[in-house]
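Kindly go through the entry underneath: sequence plus C-alpha cells. Please state briefly how this chain folds according to its C-alpha cells.
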Amino acid sequence: MSGTERTHPHLAVIMGVSGSGKSTVAEALAAQLGWELLEGDDLHPAANIAKMAAGHPLTDADREPWLEAIAAWIAQRVDAGESGLVTCSALKRSYRDILRAPMIRHPEAELTFVLLTGSRELLLQRMTERPGHFMPASLLDSQLATLEPPGPDENSVTVEIGPPPAEVAAAARKALGLET
C-alpha cells in the first residue's frame, strides 16, 4: 500500500544523532509523500539552543519540555487523522516513550521510528561541514554515548546514511513500506 492509499494515520520520527541527516531525509520524504513535516529542532526552547551552542549536552530535564511539544504535535496529527513526519534525535527509549504516548488513544494509527546510522567519522565530517548550525561537533561523542537504539518492540527501522541523501530517503521510504 502506498503512502497516499493508507486509511489510517502514519507518523514517522526521523531520528539519530546530530549529523545523521534527519532534516535532509525528512524533507525528501515529506516532498515525496505530501506529508506535513515538523523540524523538531524548531521547538527547542532558546535556553536549550544556547546550551548546546556553548558545547554543553542537554540533560533529560532540558529535553522533557521539547519532547512534550513534539508529542503534542504528533497528537494533533493523529487526532486529525493525518500522517506526518517529524525530526527528533529521540536518543533514549524514555524519550521515545514520550513521543509514543499520544498513540495510546489511537490504536488505528502507526508511529515508526526511522534510525539514521553511520560511522562516527562520517557523522563528524558532516557536522564540521555545516556552517552556522547550533550543534557543535564537540557534542557528537556525548550523543553517541547517549544513543539507545530502538528495541525490537519499538516499531523501528534502521537506515544507513553512507549513500547520497536521495538514496537514503528512498531506503527510508522502502523501509517504511511507503513505496508507490
In short: Residues 21 and 116 are 7 Å apart (CA to CA). The first helix runs from residue 22 to 33. The two ends are 7 Å apart (CA to CA). The chain has a mean pLDDT of 87.
